Amino acid sequence: MAAGRGQTYRAGQSGSEACCRFRWSATPGHQGPAFTADGLDLTRTSPPVPEILDAIRRSRNGLSCYVAIKTNDQTAHDSLGRSFAGWLHLQSITPAPALPHGANMDFHLYHLGPGADG
Predict the structure, then answer these.
(1) Which of 13, 62, 68, 77 is 20 to 30 A distant from 113 in Cα terms?
(2) Assign residue 97 a region: left if phi > 0, alpha if psi is -120 to 50, beta otherwise?
(3) pTM here?
(4) At a CB cut-off of 8 Å and minimum separation 6, what does 6 contact?
(5) Rounded to an integer, what distance in angstroms lies between the CA atom of residue 16 and that of residue 6?
């Protein structure tokens, strides 16, 4: 399902496990409300990441789900941790920086289901 410019949500079923992917990216030079002086605030994206994750959680109806998210290398106000409260953080990947701090990317993998808090 497309959600607007630069935002994509997808959920695919494979047996009892599903892979849910959320990608939020901004166009170069975009200075929307999610970009603050402290970094990218995932609670201020449109729609906010916590709302998207709540919708994913409800749509899974108790089934496990993995979510990978790409952020920049400077998230604000622990918005990544707060957005994924109740999810189990599995891995973060940070490629070697090629741009100034705040302009590089990070990848994070989370799991919802048995073993997660929520």
Answers:
(1) 77
(2) beta
(3) 0.71
(4) 24, 25, 26, 27, 30
(5) 29
